[in-house]
Design brief:
single chain; 314 residues; A middle domain of Talin 1; 13 helices; 2 strands
């Protein structure tokens, strides 16, 4: 199998693995007595991060540290632009979840913290530790205050986690997802040199512009389904939860695993872009504004433009 074919097939396996993981984790949690709405919060706060984390882990194991970092940051930007944009193009959204606005602010702060740490082109282990602590605080805040949401929002979260609670069935789902994610991550990382060669760019830019977008495909698929089902709160919770996971959890794991040096130029563009988009989302959420197809198209075009500019610059 060629590297290019492996690269594309790897993303398909990650998409399949993410779906199996979401169903298995939600069903197992509810089978153990977790309330459906709380299981939904767990999905948007942590489980959504596992597919891109699998790519990151395999890239680190292969010594592709810059690809791993590019994937983490690029995935965060793809969540805010491609995922929100794709969902809004399918169905305009008017979210009412009170937790979303603080999560948007937390995303701005996370982007700023990572920008500060990585401005010199290096991430130390202690900085990775700080990022992980930040993620733990954000997850705790999400799980605590998400339970205080209004009944319609709780119902949306519960529907996100709706699945069979049969323990054996969900264990099989988790085993299948582990296999899909392992081989998907392996093929994406092993096929990445083909993308690097075709684009003529470095590994960091490939991670930002291509791998990060591919890793966001499971979130995009889930967001589109939720948007069509008129569940805008789930869409934005998935997006902001996933972005925080990328910026804090994934980059924290990367730095903690091994201090690394890199070209900071791409991050000096991507992280301010994340902060700007998250700020705009925060303002829209505070005003109770509707995210329509026009805004969705602008967000999707923004990511394409970012990717084109980064590839051209590199």
């Amino acid at each position: 199998m060629s590297e290019a074919a492996m690269f594309l097939l790897g993303f398909l396996l990650i998409l399949l693995g993410a779906d199996s993981l979401m169903r298995g984790a939600a069903g197992l949690a509810q089978g153990l007595g977790v309330k459906p709405a709380n299981a939904g919060l767990l999905l948007v706060g942590f489980v959504v991060a596992i597919p891109p984390l699998a790519i990151t882990a395999y890239a680190l194991a292969r010594g592709a540290n810059e690809l791993a970092l590019g994937n983490a940051v690029g995935g965060g930007l793809a969540n805010l632009t491609l995922v929100v944009g794709g969902a809004a193009l399918c169905a305009p959204m008017a979210p009412a979840m009170r937790l979303l606005s603080p999560l948007a602010v937390a995303t701005v702060l996370a982007a700023g913290l990572l920008f500060f740490f990585g401005y010199d082109g290096a991430l130390a282990r202690w900085e990775g530790g700080v990022l992980l602590v930040g993620y733990a605080l954000a997850l705790g805040f999400m799980l605590r205050h998400g339970r205080e949401e209004a009944a319609p929002v709780q119902a949306e979260l519960a529907e996100l986690a709706e699945t069979s609670t049969n323990v054996s069935q969900n264990l099989v789902r988790l085993l299948m997802s582990a296999a899909f994610l392992f081989f998907g991550s392996r093929w994406v990382v092993q096929g990445a040199p083909a993308a690097v060669a075709v684009l003529g760019v470095d590994a960091m830019t490939t991670g930002l512009a291509v791998v990060g977008a591919g890793a966001a495909l499971p979130a995009l698929a889930r967001a589109i389904v939720s948007a069509i089902g008129l569940h805008p709160n789930v869409v934005l919770a998935l997006v902001l939860g996933g972005c925080l996971c990328n910026l804090l959890l994934l980059t924290g794991v990367i730095a903690l695993a091994q201090p690394l040096a890199f070209d900071p130029a791409p991050l000096r563009v991507a992280l301010p872009a994340i902060a700007v988009v998250a700020t705009l989302l925060h303002l829209l959420l505070r005003k109770g504004a509707r995210i329509g197809r026009r805004e969705g198209a602008l967000l999707a075009v923004a990511f394409v433009a970012f990717a084109a500019v980064e590839i051209g610059r590199a």
